[in-house]
Design the sequence.
């Protein structure tokens, strides 16, 4: 489905009054919690998203919202009856500081960021960004990679190589294998170590930036594994436990307080695997969020919380329709993972 068709569909739902009706129904139908999942904060209209959400929802830090959702006293709340909503940002990109944090302070909106501490302050892009970056900045004209020769003076060939690199990184059987491959492919493509001005907003946060955000009171943090592997692909089960558990240990050392919330990288069930949930329980997290689409209720499993994927580049009408719950049944009816809208 093209972007234009999606916007038209969202506009029909919004201006027909269905979105307003859905928000009213959600308020009347008992406790609900919407968790939105962003990644990047730059390159779109995050301000427009936040202004709309602030007007129609009660925005909370994730930990506060979950305490309320699962508290026996939550139904006794009086005052603001709008549906609670949480804004989460995965991974910890630099633009979460330069854009999301700046807007959070200005608009007085709390946000929650899930960190990958193995890369914080590294000064180098996250591994899952490297396919396109390496293919576009290569200094060689051709390369033989996994049985094929790529002619890199052609855009199509560079794009194909980028996808091949991404696939290899995503399906690595260990973090060590992934890191070794990155070193070798960077050398083979002769890509400079330095990053461009355009790439700076994609770098991981520094610990100084993280501490400044937390001290402001507008940003809270959760765990997102040490190195962001696809847990189901890790060959050694003990590495799953290390990725999930050591992440909490290091974050608590750096932040100086308990870290109670964990977000799976690649959070669909087949990507989490069998060991992921056990590792999260062993690490002692109170709550775990997935990427499974849906709205949370007090009956939702605290270790299988739903989120709605949102891209900052998407038109605000599409985000408004998603958050309202209008698509909750439609997306699941058409496709259990809701990717017809997301992609």
Sequence:
């Amino acid at each position: 489905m093209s972007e234009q068709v999606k916007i038209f569909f969202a506009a029909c739902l919004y201006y027909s009054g269905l979105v307003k009706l859905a928000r009213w129904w959600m308020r009347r139908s008992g406790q609900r919690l919407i968790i939105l999942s962003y990644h990047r904060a730059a390159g779109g209209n995050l301000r427009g998203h936040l202004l709309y959400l602030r007007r129609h929802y009660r925005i909370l830090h994730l930990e506060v919202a979950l305490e309320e959702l699962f508290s026996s006293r939550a139904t006794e709340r009086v005052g603001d009856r709008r549906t609670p909503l949480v804004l989460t940002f995965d991974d910890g990109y630099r633009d979460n500081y330069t854009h999301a944090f700046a807007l959070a302070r200005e608009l007085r909106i709390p946000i929650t960021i899930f960190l990958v501490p193995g890369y914080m302050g590294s000064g180098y892009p996250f591994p899952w960004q490297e396919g396109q970056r390496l293919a576009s900045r290569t200094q060689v004209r051709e390369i033989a990679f996994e049985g094929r020769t790529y002619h890199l003076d052609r855009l199509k060939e560079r794009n194909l190589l980028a996808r091949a690199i991404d696939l290899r990184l995503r399906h690595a059987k260990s973090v060590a294998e992934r890191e070794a491959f990155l070193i070798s492919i960077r050398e083979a493509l002769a890509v400079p170590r330095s990053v461009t001005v355009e790439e700076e907003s994609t770098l991981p946060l520094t610990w100084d930036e993280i501490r400044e955000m937390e001290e402001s009171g507008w940003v809270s943090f959760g765990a997102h594994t040490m190195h962001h592997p696809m847990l189901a692909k890790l060959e050694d089960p003990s590495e799953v436990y290390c990725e999930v558990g050591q992440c909490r240990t290091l974050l608590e050392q750096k932040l100086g307080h308990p870290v109670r919330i964990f977000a799976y990288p690649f959070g669909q069930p087949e990507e989490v695997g069998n060991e992921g949930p056990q590792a999260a329980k062993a690490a002692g997290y109170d709550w775990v969020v997935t990427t499974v689409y849906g709205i949370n209720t007090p009956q939702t499993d605290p270790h299988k919380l739903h989120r709605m994927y949102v891209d900052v580049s998407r038109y605000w009408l599409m985000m408004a329709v998603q958050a309202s719950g209008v698509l909750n049944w439609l997306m699941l009816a058409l496709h259990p993972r809701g990717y017809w809208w997301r992609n």
Remarks:
- Residues 136 and 234 are 29 Å apart (CA to CA).
- Residues 338-343 have pLDDT under 50 and may be disordered.
- Residues 221-260+274-287 form one domain.
